[in-house]
Amino acid sequence: MLGSPGAIKSDIFIPETNLLSDEELYQLIQRYRSGEVEAKNIIIQHNLRLVMSIAQRFSGRGEIDDLYQIGCIGLLKAVDKFDPSFAVKFSTYAVPVIIGEIKQYLRDAGPIKVSRNLKEIAAKLEQTRNQLTAQLGIEPTLAELQMATGFSYEEIATAMEATRPVNSLQEVVSDEEGDSITREQFIGEDAEQQNWLDNYALKEVIDKLPERLRLLIELRFFQEKTQTEVAGIFGVSQVQICRLEKEALLQLRKLLTN
Fold first, then answer.
1. CA angle 20, 25, 29 (to 5 degrees)
2. CA–CA–CA angle 12, 23, 258 (5° rounding)
3. What percent of the chain is modeled with pLDDT above 90?
4. pLDDT category, 204, cuts 50, 70, 90?
5. Which burial class, exposed, middle or buried, applies to 244 when counting CB atoms under 10 A from its CB (0-12, 13-18, 19+)?
6. What single DSSP character describes residue 110?
7. What string of H, E and C letters represents the secondary structure of the chain?
8. Across the strands, what pairs with 182?
9. Tens digit of each residue's pLDDT (9 = 90 or more) over 19-33
10. Rounded-to-integer distance, Cα 258 and Cα 250, Å
11. Rounded to 5 degrees, what angle do the CA atoms 183, 187, 190 make?
């Protein structure tokens, strides 16, 4: 399953709310279009965890709280522009809008922001590295840097990674048989984004299953337990689990195609 929005440290409080059903969402959209501002606030409150889960994907490129706030702007825009006649779920429409807002912010902000503490660690590491290189005649090892500075291995690795020069996405990283491949093409960001979006949509649908079927799907396909193992957990026969699994998959198929 997708990671919890609390997986990365943040001072932002996000209320525990259930996902809105399609019918509830469409009613709220209609109320908002009729001038009821509170209807928009309800939609926002029920989608804040979606914003945080997206912001966490970019946590290595900025402060999570800043990314979350920018993502909320994207959510506001998605609510304003969403039309039920689009024939897609609101989350399916909102995710690219939120991601686009965060990416625009990162492009405008320029290179990755690095905290003052990390900069100070990196500066001391660079100074120590130069001193040890002069003394030893060779590049110091990670262990030697750790001994000389007193920083932990994790602090050293984080500081070095955070202050590494930013590579352009248009940089050619492979050139075979006359075909140049840029870093952006090599990463395949669009495919990764679509895969993440599909996973989020699937989780949203799984959450609509009855509790017993939801647990079965979790055990079988996310924890990769066998039908026999699941039967032992449920206290039923393997044949019954097989039937329940077919029922769960049938319901999922209907929810995904509606």
1. 150
2. 105
3. 7
4. low
5. buried
6. -
7. CCCCCCCCCCCCCCCCCCCCCHHHHHHHHHHHHCCCHHHHHHHHHCCHHHHHHHHHHCHHHCCHHHHHHHHHHHHHHHHHHCCHHHCCCHHHHHHHHHHHHHHHHHHHHCCCCCCHHHHHHHHHHHHHHHHHHHHHCCCCCHHHHHHHHCCCHHHHHHHHHHCCCCCCCCCEEEEECCEEEEHHHHHCHHHHHHHHHHHHHHHHHHCCCCHHHHHHHHHHHHCCCCHHHHHHHHCCCHHHHHHHHHHHHHHHHHHHHC
8. 172
9. 788 888 889 999 998
10. 12
11. 120
The answer to whether 151 and 125 have CB atoms below 8 angstroms apart is yes
Mean pLDDT of 213-226: 80
14 Cα distance to chain centroid: 16
**Structural tokens at position 25:** 């969402």
DSSP 30: H
**E strand map for 95-243:** 172-176, 179-182
Angle at 89 between CA 84 and CA 91, to 5 degrees: 120
C-alpha distances (whole Å) from 171 to each of 73, 112, 168, 182 are 31, 17, 5, 5
Q: Is the pLDDT of residue 226 over 90?
A: no
Dump pLDDT digits (tens) for 91-127: 878 888 888 888 888 876 655 555 677 778 888 888 8
Secondary structure letter of residue 220 according to DSSP: I
> Is the full-model pTM beyond 0.90?
no
